[in-house]
Specification:
It contains 14 helices and 20 strands. It is an alpha+beta fold. The protein has a six-stranded mixed beta sheet with strand order 2-3-7-4-8-18, with helices on both faces. A four-stranded antiparallel beta sheet has the order 12-14-10-15. A three-stranded antiparallel beta sheet has the order 5-6-19. β5 and β6 form a beta hairpin. The chain is elongated. The N and C termini lie close together (8 Å). The protein binds zinc ion.
Amino acid sequence: MTSPAPSDSQIPSSEREAAVLEAASTGLPAALGDLGRLVRIPGIAWPAFDQSQLERSSEAIAELATATGIFDEVRVLRAAIPGTDEVGQPAVLATRKARNGKPTILLYAHHDVQPPGDAALWETPPFEPTVRDGRLYGRGAADDKAGIMAHIASIRAVAEVLGDDLDLGVALFIEGEEEYGSRSFATFLSDNRDALRADAIVVADSGNWDSETPGLTVSLRGNARFTMRVRTLAHASHSGMFGGAVPDAMMATVRLLATLWNEDGSVAVEGLVERDAPTPEYGEATLRDEAGLLPGTTPIGDGSILGRIWNKPAVTVIGIDATSVEAASNTLAPEITVVISARVAPGQTGEEAYEALQEHLRAHAPFGAELTFSDADLGNGFLVDTSGWAVALTREAMRDGYGVAPLDLGVGGSIPFIADLVREFPEAQILVTGVEDPHSRAHSPNESLHLDTFRHAVATEALLLSRMNDIVI
Ligand SMILES: [Zn+2]
């Protein structure tokens, strides 16, 4: 890739940028109004919910995209789900071609939301946008309808100021099933490869350091989740008959699972790697507060706290099939099934981590217990190459849009579809940004968007678009 060169323009860039920022600011009430309208549409990709709502929300977004006036084409599309004869949920794809050697940017967000969960836990109804104390509450108000509106609002601002001088190529891609596993995402990318091809991809689905300090997400952990069945006996027996002479499956399982961690709670699985990278200061008191650690309970792991969450593996047992407490009887269980979920350090593939975990578990199976593994769900982590020009432009835009220098952030979770983006568009620079702050409570009751963060995020993205329009690649 050639390095970008500044191009000529009629209006001096400082004047133009002031106008872009002004337009972004003036457009905020309208953007929040549109965001509220999107929040009112309960578009959830789980089959148990009314699927027509996702059609409504995709149509509403297509209208917003069309009304910006910058796109050559706006479509609502679905793609096949591999291995099934189904298609995925509707996505919006709006495109305009770059002119005069300018770059193309792909703006991603998703319009489906998490189910609301227990309605009683919401202080105001989940699908009624409500402003309280500088925050907009509602399911999807942050994750990720605010991401959609940050894209739309920043496009509006640059369209208004640049008019015919807007030469930047833009593809707006708003997915409809991110919260439900992005099942048709890979097919969507290959079906629409040419329309989606870009020099830089903004994935507006992550968070910031806090409501004032922007963050560029530069690493994500991967995941390896699987089911393990542990068998020791051909059938159940009375524990008084054989207890003490043969191992029951629960005993074998408990002892086996205990080998996964060291005394300090760090992961003890050989072959699971960790990454060495600096992390911002984050004290134990903050961890205690944010994670809800009980007063007498200690944290686990070693090294810096964020290093444990961003750069090291974690192993959690997230499900177990055994006799319930209610049905407990004096019986030796022949078989126990558990679901193990590992977070994988960025840099290691989900596949490698799964291999390492299986090897560890087989090597440590007590009393020759039989193990079977199944239902593996593997996702790769992600490390941003931070040397690219679009990364530098994004950091500068964040600094100017928020008025505070951005931090490089890691994320302990995964955005599995990023691996699909990297595979399909290896040349593109991927910029993981977002509108969330640590109090957004995405996926939980009382999800909310900090209005100042949104304002800064829109200013940032408008500056980014305007500055990308100034370079020739
Ligand atoms: Zn999201």
